[in-house]
Specification:
The complex is a heterodimer of chains A (about 375) and B (about 400).
Chain A (H helix, E strand, L loop, with lengths): L2 H10 L2 H29 L9 E6 L7 E2 L2 H6 L4 E7 L15 E4 L1 H7 L3 E2 L2 H9 L3 E5 H6 L7 E5 L11 E12 L9 E4 H7 L6 E2 L1 E6 L5 H12 L6 E5 H12 L1 H30 L2 H9 L4 H32 L15 H28 L2 H7 L1
Parallel strand pairs in A: 4-9, 6-8
Antiparallel strand pairs in A: 1-11, 1-12, 2-10, 3-11, 5-8, 6-9, 7-8
Helix pairs in contact in A: 1-12, 2-10, 2-12, 10-13, 11-14, 12-13
Chain B lengths: L1 H16 L5 H33 L6 E6 L12 H8 L6 E2 L2 E2 L1 E12 L6 E9 L3 H4 L4 E5 L8 E5 H6 L8 E4 L2 E10 L9 E4 H7 L8 E5 L6 H9 L6 E5 H6 L3 H36 L1 H10 L3 H31 L3 E6 L4 E6 L4 H28 L2 H6 L1
Classes of the chains: A alpha+beta (about 375), B alpha+beta (about 400).
């Protein structure tokens, strides 16, 4: 009889409990998968922020606009490669629930600034050639079943169009993909020149700038230089790294993410504790069998390995299945259907998951395995 | 029937007496159940708190006027002439100082959050004297009201708790303007408590808004005069405005967070519920296995099958009820009243609110635990009833 089949024989002893315990472990690791995906979703792109990009906004708040002329002034500062304007459009597609970030941008500059947005060259050319052209991220194109060439009406909330009514009309000329899973593919990007020409208020003003710098290490100095340039103007600026900006933004949405994470983490560990207790219990019940093993010549070390192996096998099989199932369920996408546009199982969490599976097997098996090892054969046989 | 009931009582009492012998597995089941209920209630209490803050902000007898086409104060703009036209409409209540019409300016300033130190969008509202008559919930609790025409502000108590630099006596540098914090107000836990208030006439030039406002709040003579008021405005060709009841306006604002939190709460609650059912099954199978002999004896004495089923389910329900209650109470202790702030997407600014573990939420949690317990007890109960008497006695 090989070691493995001995472990398998142990499993057969209490099939029902084994199945129930195994399923609990599966549930725990499915929960873990959701946990890591939710955490990632609430991070809001902090982890992929470009180290060589700054965000320059009005010092009072991001809703205050800046003069568009700042672009040229920022670009003259040493260490700045390029600056490009963005504005919050905030329009409505059919229903206010259909939220998506809409920005008027300068196409070439924007695509160069954010190379993680991948747009096929012919679509880029179409965008440059179409004044009313818009490109959108893959996930919203899929969500609303938009096709290239389609005309998309967006109801203005801030910027009424010069043409009559509240609707702006855009022609869909491109669909971009994200270079990474974290890349935001929910943006709706149309042309700044068309926006400037067709809006009635806020002429000559933009929302904020994205700035690329030559050397990420000099980010603080360049940010300072930008702010100093405008400090005595009516629109003073605040320049900061994209990461810091994204972090502050994520913090605004707030502890909600942190709280959900804290709650879930504690639950996950509770489940592990309960499962560990069950495994330990099943080993205790078999004291007599372990005595038999020792009586027929198994060494202390072998008994230790046997008990540990059993607990590891259970944790490994069930935990692995749980991680696999969790990965699959998470890959089905945002379970809330619209609130978490970035929802995936982060690769780095897979390692943590595997470590937890092994940890569970070791911790749950350790105490019973040690007591099994120390067991005196005579006592064990007598106890049954 | 009476006999049947007395059998159930006897059996259940007997079952519960054996709990101390199975303390380990019963405890595991209890802890699991408490965890599930605690978490479900905890997550849903975020939604309750946020919704309450927004829902209680609106009053049914206050009309909220925005520019046509805008979906919130942030995107609205109304000229001084518009305000005058609105004030001329019928159905408006009058206070000591005239018509209760409050034109307001709404801007956002960046202040560091106390918890993280990073900048957050804090709402700042410019008001005129009728504002205090229209929003009668606002009460000063420290310092004094700002003086009209001066660079002074009063701050909501919740805003003061969440953001740095808002203590009475401190100065607030916003762009090129310096404001003196002179007082703190409460508003019965409603939205204004997250805001900073200043004189609109001082705020307008500071933000280069000329003489424009963003919204107009109007106290109506009665909740019933809304229709007449709205008709007068919408039929006025000189105006392009959107007229809503204040209650209606705020009800829509909690939608995003409510949707997110409730769906997350139920997904997680469902998953953990599955875990809890497994735990309960384990416990009850262990319980039944440990009592095989006793059950056999009772059956031999003439107890029928159904009381055995019912008694096992009852035991599972008792464990679930105790675990669920513990979890619910813990959730109440841990989460009720917890102060935090999040983004209100409609106004693109921070809303401070407190988690609320309401009695209906507690009941919901315990009922959920009972459902889980019933499911977890059913299969073991059937097994117990099906045990062949002879085999059971032989064990």
């Amino acid at each position: 009889m090989t070691r493995l089949s001995l472990v398998a024989a142990g499993f057969k002893r209490h099939r029902l409990r084994l199945v129930l315990t195994g399923l609990s472990i599966v549930v725990a690791f499915v929960l873990f998968s959701y946990l890591v995906a939710i955490r990632k979703a609430f991070e809001m792109g902090v982890s992929i922020a470009g180290a060589d990009r700054l965000v320059v906004r009005h010092s009072v708040s991001i809703i205050q606009s800046l003069p568009a002329s700042y672009e040229a002034e920022i670009e003259r500062i040493p260490g700045v490669v390029d600056a490009t304007p963005l504005s919050w459009f905030g329009g409505i597609y059919k229903d206010p629930k259909n939220f998506m970030p809409q920005f008027p941008v300068k196409p070439e500059e924007y695509l160069a600034m954010f190379p993680e947005f991948r747009l096929p060259p012919e679509q880029k050319a179409a965008w440059l050639a179409t004044r009313t052209g818009v490109i959108v991220g893959r996930s919203i194109a899929d969500k609303y079943h938009w096709k290239l060439g389609q005309r998309i009406p967006i109801q203005a909330t801030i910027y009424a169009p010069r043409t009559a009514g509240h609707d702006w009309r855009f022609d869909l000329v491109g669909i971009y993909d994200g270079a990474k899973k974290e890349t935001d593919t929910t943006q709706f990007l149309f042309r700044q020149d068309y926006f400037e020409e067709n809006k009635e208020i806020g002429k000559g003003r933009i929302g904020w700038f994205a700035v690329r710098i030559a050397d990420p290490k000099k980010a603080p100095q360049v940010a300072k230089a930008i702010d100093e340039l405008f400090v005595n103007s009516p629109a003073a600026t605040k320049a900061e790294g994209e990461g810091a900006f994204a972090q502050a933004f994520a913090n605004q949405v707030g502890n909600i993410g942190a709280i959900v994470t804290a709650i879930l983490t504690s639950v996950f560990f509770t489940i592990l504790l309960v499962v560990g207790n069950t495994i330990a219990q099943s080993v205790r019940e078999r004291t007599q069998e372990l005595g038999v093993l020792k009586a027929i010549g198994f060494t202390d070390g072998e008994v230790l390995a046997h008990v540990l192996g059993e607990s590891l096998a259970l944790a490994g099989l069930a935990g692995g299945a749980g991680l696999g199932l969790g990965y699959f369920l998470v890959s089905l996408g945002d379970p809330t259907k619209r609130f978490l546009p970035i929802f995936f199982f982060p690769r780095e969490a897979l390692g943590v998951g595997i470590a937890l599976v092994i940890g569970l097997g070791l911790v749950a098996g350790a105490v019973p395995a040690l007591s099994a090892m120390r067991l005196r054969t005579v006592d064990a046989l007598r106890r049954g | 029937m009476l006999r049947w009931l007395s059998q159930i009582t006897t059996l259940t009492a007997f079952n519960l007496k054996t709990v101390p012998q199975r303390l380990g597995s019963v405890t595991a089941s209890l802890v699991g159940m408490a965890g599930v209920v605690g978490v479900l209630i905890g997550v849903l209490s975020i939604d309750q708190g946020f919704r309450r803050t927004l829902a209680t902000t609106g009053a049914p007898d206050v009309a909220f006027v925005l520019r046509g086409g805008s979906d919130g104060e942030m995107t609205s703009i109304l000229a001084r002439d518009d305000v005058q036209l609105i004030a001329d409409a019928p159905g408006i209540a009058r206070g000591a100082a005239g018509a209760l019409v409050s034109p307001e300016l709404f801007v956002v300033i960046s202040l560091p959050k106390r918890t993280t130190g990073t900048d957050a969008n804090v709402p700042m509202r410019g008001v005129t004297p009728p504002a205090l008559g229209v929003n009668d919930k606002v009460k000063m609790v420290a310092g004094r009201m700002f003086a009209w025409g001066r660079n002074e502000v009063i701050v909501g108590r919740a805003a003061q708790g969440q953001f740095r630099g808002l203590d009475v006596g401190s100065t607030l540098q916003v762009g090129q303007n310096v404001w003196q914090v002179v007082g703190v107000f409460t508003a019965e836990g409603t939205l204004p408590e997250s805001e900073i208030w200043a004189d609109a006439a001082v705020l307008q030039p500071a933000y280069r808004r000329g003489t424009t406002y963003q919204s107009v709040k109007v106290k109506l003579a009665s909740a019933g005069s809304f229709a007449a008021f709205k008709d007068a405005l919408t039929s006025n060709p000189q105006l392009d405005v959107k007229v809503q009841r204040e209650t209606e306006f705020f009800a829509g604002q909690s939608e995003a967070l409510t949707g997110l939190v409730t769906s997350l709460g139920w997904i997680l609650g469902g998953l953990m519920g599955l875990g809890a059912i497994l735990g309960a099954l384990n416990t009850m199978y262990t319980a039944v296995a440990a009592r095989t002999r006793e059950i056999g004896t009772l059956r031999a004495l003439g107890f029928s099958g159904s009381p055995v089923v019912v008694s096992v389910i009852l035991e599972s329900l008792v464990v679930a009820a105790v675990g669920g209650t513990v979890g619910a109470l813990l959730a109440r202790l841990a989460f009720d009243g917890y102060q935090t702030a999040t983004m209100n997407w409609k106004s693109f600014s921070q809303v401070a609110f407190a988690f609320r573990v309401t009695p209906p939420l507690l009941v919901l949690g315990i009922v959920y635990a009972l459902i889980l317990g019933a499911i977890g007890g059913l299969l073991p109960a059937i097994r117990a009833a099906r045990l062949p008497v002879a085999n059971a006695l032989r064990e």
